[in-house]
Fold these 2 entries.
Entry 1:
Amino acid sequence: MVKFLASSFTVLLLTIAAVKAQINPALYPKINEVPPVTSPEVVAWLKEIDLTGAPTIELHVGAPPACPNPPIANECYWTCDGCAADDITACAAPNTWGLTFDDGPSTATPTLLDYLKTNKLSASFFVIGSNAIQYPDTLKREVTEGHHLASHTWSHHALTTLTNEQIVAEMKWTEKAVLEATGLRLKYMRPPYGDINNRVRFVLKKLGYIPVDWTGDAFDTNDWRIPTMTEAQVIDTFSKSLDTYVASDKAKGFYCLEHDVSSLTVNVALKLLPLGITRKINFASVAGCESDAQPYQAGSTAPMPTLSAGTSAGQPTATKGGATPSASATGVAGNGTVNGPTIVDPKNKSGASSIAVSGVFAAAAAAAVALILA
Ligand SMILES: [Zn+2]
């Protein structure tokens, strides 16, 4: 009898584990388009925040927009003048590669996840909401395997070209999609193309988001230039950037720009990451870099993942089962202040970290079992 119950229990768990995340796209805006601001959902979200006092900076034009000439005073436009305000632009942990991937999830993402799992590395995935509703199971897998999720907007439009209300719609629809898929409410974001100024920052702050840029041109892997730029050129260029970094004091780590948007970018990632491992650079997600034990916003319906301590290259970074976050630091507290780049990523941008999951889905499965058995 006990054996029968144990067997049935195992089958039940396997069945629950096999249940795919379901998101009904009909309940979301059109993919890859700026969501309308007149929908009941967006109207309700706009009522929750006060946008009065937002800087009155004119909207830019273009995809991505050209730099204004002459520059707009007090705009603090990162992609054009390197002004980062209080954006995070460097990994706070020394000698650490802040591992971030933008523009997913995609059909190429599982290959990257396999590699990260094999090498015991954790990353932050800056996901696009339009992709999130198409691949919710990939989001679940990312969380389950100790990665950190962050926002890269709904439709990947340059935010300085959008109204304040459109920015709210872009962020909140993405937040809703990831919350529905994983139970986690996003806290960090990366602006598409690194396109951010003080008006965008104002709106993001109202929504509780922390912008994460990348650590300047040298840490743009240029993976998005492939095949215009050959894979060999990308690897050679980035290898030299790593050599320069290794020769520095390495007091702070760096955030790279990488993408899990296609097999082209994922395949080159599998060749770039070993360059860091052989140089004995540690790896961490944004949560790991910033020692953030609460890497998601309040309102998450799943337990907060536990931040792991170890981020050494090739070493385990995921500690499972902890209910109470412990922010044992791998690095220095506080945000980076390194100046940003002066170029614009024509398609993508991203970031990564080392958090572990406190059995989010295991807990959900257990709850489901309890419900079924009751
Ligand atoms: Zn992007």
Entry 2:
Amino acid sequence: MNENTPVLPRRSAVAGTVAVCGLAAGCARYGGPTAPPPPDAGDGGGGGETGTGSAQAPSGEVLGAAADIPVGGGKVFKDQEIVVVQPVEGEFKGFSAVCTHQGCLVNAVADGTINCDCHGSKFAVADGAVTAGPAPEPLGEQQVSVTPDGQIVLGEAPPAETTEAPAQEETTEAPPPGLASTGDIPVGGGKIFADEEVVITQPTAGEFRAFSAVCTHQGCMVTKITGGTINCECHGSKFAVADGGVTAGPASKPLPERTVRVTGDQISLT
Ligand code: FES
Ligand code: FES
């Protein structure tokens, strides 16, 4: 192509009218948020004018892998008319790939410049500034970002996919296996749990009580529950299923009460 070649006005309808994301917004760092604005944004001439940008490409579009962008160089994404550069390791910038001379697409990035072969314009990788004419203005910046997984995307990187832990199912906590099932305890009677040294009684339907199974006479384990009493066969002491009170000696003190919790049909000690 030469001066006489009709130039396809790539996005030229909007060139010069679309505000670019600004020199500040055009760069991104690996794995991090958009980098702060470079201090020398105005270098290269014409930087104060924001009318040289290309049309805004759809934000969020993935351009390619950050790993494919050479440090000190860049890569032209023709379809998106974006050139992505990596002036220093880990710092990525995007520029419009539309040459500010006559709207050709820049076609190469080499030796620190972004090159337009139509008429030889060159732009600095660092900031898109003109390093060789006839282009009169720097390339417009385009915001690019790097996703946490190393992809260059147009605009802001989409928020990291929140791999939200699946909502904890509101499982009504299964009651811990109890010491006994309510069905195990006869109404008006009870059951002795020797290992736990406890006796559970059900004096009236649905009322559960628990007592120490250790006889208060001389410490034998009670052995039977009959006739509404908890019985110690060592010397014949008896205790009421209702409250553990002594109904027959020689024990003189009631069985100490234990507290129980009934969850569903499970009875457990507390
Ligand atoms: S269009 Fe002329 S140098 Fe790029
Ligand atoms: S130890 Fe129970 S009656 Fe003596």
